[in-house]
Amino acid sequence: MICTLLAIFSLFSKAMAEARERTFIMVKPDGVQRGLVGKIIKRFEEKGFKLVALKFTWPSEELLKKHYADLASRPFFPGLVKYMSSGPVVPMVWEGLNAVKTGRVMLGATNPADSAPGTIRGDLCIQVGRNIIHGSDSVESAQKEIGLWFTEKEVIGWTPATTTWVYED
Ligand code: IDP
Ligand code: MG
Q1: Whose CA is nearest to atom 20 of ligand 1?
Q2: Cβ atoms of residues 125 and 30 within 8 Å
Q3: Which end of the chain has fewer CB atoms surrounding its CB within 10 Å, N or C?
Q4: Pick from 167, 117, 109: which is nearest to 133 by CA?
């Protein structure tokens, strides 16, 4: 009996922990210039993910070089840093079950030429060097990116009134 209760409790807390997965999403300078911020936020809101951090900021080249450190040796890196530092961006943190993986699916492929219709990139942009949005590719990179762009205090824990209508438990 106690074992069953413990098993149920551990399944429940596992589901709750998974529902707290966080991903770092950012509207890039072209998305801001093209007036797509509201539309992009709406997609994540309507999906059922929870917004836990957001800001409007013009990022430094230094921050962008850290953000894209993994790509430093790629030929497009200097152009990428120039593009990303060319204007304000909207970094955000979204939370929910499988937020990282589902967030990537919602973004679509890196190159909009390969992004499926219905995805953000598939619907709203054309070229890889102007692909309007960033999304973390793993839970580990999400944690790194959230730490780069936000302080701990800027990430807000809260419970939306809709939670029990989005999740079964
Ligand atoms: P991702 O944004 O889908 O995770 P990454 O391979 O991590 O894709 O590349 C980061 C960003 O670098 C892309 O979103 C895009 O803006 C840019 N990028 C990637 N490949 C190219 C390229 O071949 N030419 C120009 N820019 C590129
Ligand atoms: Mg990436």
Answers
A1: 128
A2: yes
A3: N
A4: 109
Atom of ligand 1 nearest to the CA of 104: 3
Q: What is the 3-state secondary structure (H, E, C) of 19-60?
A: HCCEEEEEECHHHHHCCCHHHHHHHHHHHCCEEEEECCECCC
Longest dimension (CA), the chain: 62
**C-beta 128 within 6 A of ligand 1:** yes
Residue spans of beta strands (DSSP E) within 72-140:
90-95, 133-135
86-134: pLDDT as tens digits: 999 999 999 999 999 999 999 999 999 999 999 999 999 999 999 999 9
C-alpha closest to that of 31 among 42, 22, 45: 42
Which pair of tokens denotes residue 86? Answer: 């060319």
| CA 102/CA 105 separation, integer angstroms | 5
Q: Please state the φ and ψ torsions of residue 21, each to the nearest 5 degrees.
A: -60, 140
CA–CA distance, 32 with 89 (Å, rounded to integer) = 6
Indicate if the alpha-carbon torsion angle 31, 128, 95, 165 is positive or negative.
positive
Which residue's CA is the closest to the ligand 1 atom numbered 3?
Answer: 110
What's the pTM value of the predicted model, to 2 decimals? Answer: 0.92
